[in-house]
Every structure is written in C-alpha cells, then in structure tokens.
Amino acid sequence: MPVTNSPRTLFDKIWDDHVVERLEDGTCILYIDRHLVHEVTSPQAFEGLRMSGRRVRRPDATVAVVDHNVPTSDRSKPIEEPQSRLQIETLEKNVAQFGIPYFPLRSASQGIVHVVGPEQGISLPGMTIVCGDSHTSTHGALGSLAFGIGTSEVEHVLATQTILQKPAKNMRVSVEGKVGPGVTAKDIMLAIIGRIGTAGGTGHVIEFAGSAIRDLDMAGRMTLCNMSIEAGARAGLVAPDETTFAYVKGRPFAPKGGAFDQACDYWRSLVSDEGAYFDTEVTLAAEEIIPSVTWGTSPQDVLPIDGSVPSPSDVADPARAAQIQRALDYMGLEAGQKIAGTPVDVVFIGSCTNSRLEDLRAAADVVRGRHVAKGVRAMIVPGSGLVKHAAEAEGLDKVFLDAGFEWREAGCSMCLGMNPDRLTPGQRCASTSNRNFEGRQGPDGRTHLCSPAMAAAAAVTGRLCDVRELVKETV
Amino acid sequence: MDKFTELTAIAAPMPTENIDTDQIIPARFLKTIQRTGLGKNAFAAQRYDADGNEKPDFVLNQEPFRHAEILITYDNLGCGSSREHAPWALLDFGIRCVIAPSFADIFFNNCFKNGILPIPLPREICDELMDDARQGSNSRLTVDLERQVIVRPNGETIAFEVDPFRRHMLLEGLDDIGQTMAHDTEISSFEHRPSRAWVPSITIGTVK
C-alpha cells in the first residue's frame, strides 16, 4: 500500500484502504464493499456476464432494488407500461439467477436505492460503494467513498468486486458559521454549485467540512453529498462523527455488538489529518446563504430567492450569452425578471435528494394549516416504504392530504420521468430533485430546483416565493 | 468491443457547453435491456419535433453531419447522469470520437468502455476543428490513436494526450474484466485481511 506518514485526507485514507493493487501506469484495482443495483443500468451488465459465462463474485456484497421505473400509484395493480415491466422482470430474473439479495417492488422496504442503502445500514462509513447511478455520491454522507458508474463498470464490479480507477484530486468545501432560519442543506448545496459551477468539481472528490456541515443531520448531509455530481465531482464526503455513528447504530445490516465497536474505532480514524493537502479549497459563509432556486437548465443556474434572472447581455462570451438566451427561452422567463412570484403548475417533493423523513417534516411544517393553491398539482413521493410508514406514524400524510397534496408510493418518480410521473410540455415545476436539464422531468417541462420547505411554500402560494415569509406568519 | 486505431471521418460541430446525458439520450428511452438501437433517439429533443419530424436546424439533421463519426463540443460534455446509454446512443448513431475542452468524469470513462475515443483539447483548437468541420463533406478529420494526433484537412497535425492504459485497451479492443480477473489471487487475499473483519455480509434471505 502506498501508505506514508504524511498527512492524508479522508478520501486518501478510504482510497488507500481499498487498493488491491496499483498497476504500472498508476491505475488502481480498487476493492468495492457494496454494489447497489437497480433495474435501468443493470440488464446489459448481467447479459454480459451470461455471454461470457461469468458469475457474480460477491452476491453477499450486492443488493438490488427497483426504483427508477416503478409507478408511484397503487402497487396492487400490474405495471402498465410494457417496457418498464420488462425491465423490472429482467432484474427479478437476474437476481434470482445470480443469487443477489433484492428488495422487490411490493416489499415494505422498497424505495430509491440511495434512500434504502443508508436506511438499512447496507451503506456504512469507510466503505467503497458503487451503483450504476450518478447520485451514488449520496452515500458519501456516511463517510464512505461512493460514486456512480456506467453499465460496463457494473459488469466489471459484478464479476470482480473491483473497479479500475486512478485516484481523484482532493477538494474541500468548507461552510462556516450558522445558517439562518429557513435555510436548509439544499440551499447550502445550491449555493456551492452556484459558486463553483457544474464542472467545478470535475476530477475531484469533495469533502464537505466546516461548522455548518457538522451541524447538519444525516438527511441534510445526504442532500449535500447527493448533489456533488451536479458540481461535477466524482464523489462527496462528510467525515463520520457521533451524528453518523448514532444514525448507523441498530440499522438492520449494520455491524452489531463488538463488531460495531470495532467498526467505530476504525471509523473514528476517518478524518482528514491536520495539514493534509487539498488541490482545491473553497469556503462559504453560512450566514450569506439564503433560500435559493434555480432559474435555468443547469444546476449552476442558481439564484437566491430575492434575485433576478440574468440577461445574455450580462456576459462577454457569446457562447455563454447564447446559452443564457436558450435557457430563458426554454424556461419561458424574461431577462432581468424577479424570480420570486413566478407561478408554478406542479410541485414535486421527492427524489434521492430530498425524500427522507426530515425532508417531509420540513415540508409539512410549511403546509400545516394551509392548502395547495388553486390549479397546482402537488405531489409527495417518499423515498422508501419505510419513510412513508414513519411519516404516516407521525400523521404527516394527513397534513399533506388535507392540504390537497397527493401522497404516493416510493420511487424516483418525477425526478427523471422514466415512470408515469412526468411534466407535460410547458408545465413549470418547483422540484426538490437534483437536475433541471431540458426535458429532465418530461419533454419541454420546466424545472426549478429548491428545498422541500421552498417547494411546499410554492405549493401553497402557487408561486416561487421566500419560505421565510410564510414561516414568519406562522410565528 | 471494437478496436479504435485510426478514424477518418466527418465531424459535427456543436458549439455548446454542458451538453448533458439527458440531452444525449432522454430518460424515457432508457427502458431498453439492450445496448443497441438507441441511435435513432440520440439528441431526441433537439432532433425531432413533437410529431417526430426532423428539425432542419439541428446539426445532426443536416448534410453531411448526419453521417458524422466525430462530435466536437464545448466544455463539460456528458455532464449529469451516469447512464452508459449516452455513449451507446452516440455509438449507435455512428460517433466513434468526441472532442471537447473538458468532459464529465463518468461520461469520459464510459466512452472508453465502448470504443469511443474522448479527446480533451483547448477551446481554441476545438474552435479551429469546428471551422474545419463546417467546410462540408470533403472536409474530414483523421484521428490517429497510434500516433496520438489529429490530422486537419490542411494536413496540419494536432497532438493529443491519452491515458496509456486506456489507449492500449482501445487499440487492442480489450475487455478489461478479463484483465482484472487475472489478478484474482490479489483480490482474494485483500478480502481476507483482518482489518476488514468488521465489514458485514448480506445474506440473501435477510433482504425482503
């Protein structure tokens, strides 16, 4: 192992502990502790194994779940769309053939892979975790090195339990201070992406640090790490601490008893050493972050809610100016207009970014005693069956249903429009998901990314607005 | 995987930053269980109108670019989702080489796994190559991976960098799973390290 006495970052430590072999040109065979599999990016990988007569090396380190394609309506009915059904049936055939643990559609624990992994204790600190999905970065919130891979790599991991990679560069994003009321992990992350851009993290793993990050609960840290990929980073990390250990303890697949203590001893060593080298350092002041939304078709198109939409004439580069114009046209916005007050047609609260119990509580706090604005379709899609169940135990379903929200079954839903939940052309959506790309939520749909509290505020007022004004009224 | 050695082909200019994988292949086309057949829906939203007719102003609907095997764009090509359907769609359309000032990491990696060569070059050079591409059907670029150069229509050569391991895999058309499996002994010995004793196994019957 290339372990030296020089100070190392959290990323360096996890990386070093998983290098099986370093090849001549510096490419490493990196061991993978957890491989999460879903229906969309795996069929071709299993087919590849079959064609070459290979087996799955570690079915006991692999877990499958269906999420992208599944309808979020009544689960007792068969899946209508034939292609979606085929993809789900194909996964079921593959997990049976290769002996892989699987959460089926009608399991009480089924949900979005990035919600289920941490919730079940399948994803743990210090691990390397991969999945054929870019938002695998979510699991970095536990202090694990987690990144998305393509289907060829899915096949590679199935066959070898390793991946070929060179080490990433280290970036540290520190957020210091305390955020104001109404400002959430989502707003912090949008501010970071707005600052560094969607390619700002390319080639890097980002470690999120600073007092504002330490103060976040695990759900918040997951929101943050989830969108590392929107900053272009390979992965996001938060050093594991007592908040992490308390979260992990007692989860179904977490180590128990003495093994948990042994693991904790190891996990406590997973912090960046004093003086460790970071290729890039960025610092933000928590006090300067206010509730934010995106205006355009890239996650870096971020505005504080009191901001105004940019104009192509603001920039010198003609290609960038053309891009702003294209985004304005696509989004149906005027250069220079205030973003607050923009009417919405749909509100989507869900996705691997913001569908955990804490997210639903934050939305419910805004909704309680109010009603969805006339003409707005508002949906709540819990991240897993267990999140849904826990929310119902607290009566959150009633808060939402009474206010006119739809209360749906777990899945990726309207984040990417692979299932029946889609925007129709021209519809404008306040969404707690992670991407506002053209067509992401349905062809010609218009997405404004925001926090669950901000999405809830948009639902009850019918417009993008500053949630702090609503919360003030309640107080 | 097909080898990539030398390619002489039409290049399509797309002077746009942040072309994401949702643009390259929208999510609704990811329901396939095969790698092939995605080319007709590559760039679907920009290529077709609501009735499925080609939009004439989109570059890949124009001659000679509908026969392009090289794509040239601006920064951060392939950002967004890890879907390998994006390179599969490009490959199925006929693209074997993508040139841009920068790429998103996962897309960059996925290209190599499918015999597509991604080449990072400074924006000024991408601009020059786009100008070459706009000269029409007689204007072809040659990408020579062995020599690591692009030959412009005027004969000028532009050198490019490529990771030696990935270059080798492309030139030989090798499957890296077979290569890694040759290290089975090392992988097994890693798995039995005492320091890994805390890592739990997941038993099939316990997941429901």
UniProtKB/TrEMBL annotation, chain A:
Cofactor: [4Fe-4S] cluster
Name of the molecule in the record: 3-isopropylmalate dehydratase large subunit
Primary gene name: leuC
Entry's EC annotation: 4.2.1.33
The protein's assembly and partners: Heterodimer of LeuC and LeuD.
Pathway stated in the Swiss-Prot or TrEMBL entry: Amino-acid biosynthesis; L-leucine biosynthesis; L-leucine from 3-methyl-2-oxobutanoate: step 2/4
Record-listed [4Fe-4S] cluster binding positions: 352, 412, 415
Cofactor mode of binding and number, as noted: Binds 1 [4Fe-4S] cluster per subunit.
Organism: Gluconobacter sphaericus NBRC 12467
TrEMBL record, chain B:
Keywords carried by this UniProt record: Amino-acid biosynthesis, Branched-chain amino acid biosynthesis, Leucine biosynthesis, Lyase
Database matches in InterPro entries: 3-IsopropMal_deHydase_ssu, Aconitase/3IPM_dehydase_swvl, AconitaseA/IPMdHydase_ssu_swvl, IPMI_Swivel, LeuD
Pathway assigned in UniProt: Amino-acid biosynthesis; L-leucine biosynthesis; L-leucine from 3-methyl-2-oxobutanoate: step 2/4
Pfam family, one: Aconitase_C
Keyword Amino-acid biosynthesis: yes
SUPFAM superfamilies xrefs: LeuD/IlvD-like
Record has Lyase as a keyword: yes
Function: Catalyzes the isomerization between 2-isopropylmalate and 3-isopropylmalate, via the formation of 2-isopropylmaleate.
Annotated Gene Ontology cellular component terms: 3-isopropylmalate dehydratase complex
GO molecular function: 3-isopropylmalate dehydratase activity
Catalysed reactions listed for this entry: (2R,3S)-3-isopropylmalate = (2S)-2-isopropylmalate
EC number(s) from the headed UniProt entry: 4.2.1.33
Limits of the Aconitase A/isopropylmalate dehydratase small subunit swivel domain: 1-123
UniProt GO BP: L-leucine biosynthetic process
Quaternary structure annotation from Swiss-Prot or TrEMBL: Heterodimer of LeuC and LeuD.
Name listed for the protein in its UniProt record: 3-isopropylmalate dehydratase small subunit
Family, per entry: Belongs to the LeuD family. LeuD type 1 subfamily.
Enzyme class of the recorded protein, top EC level: lyase
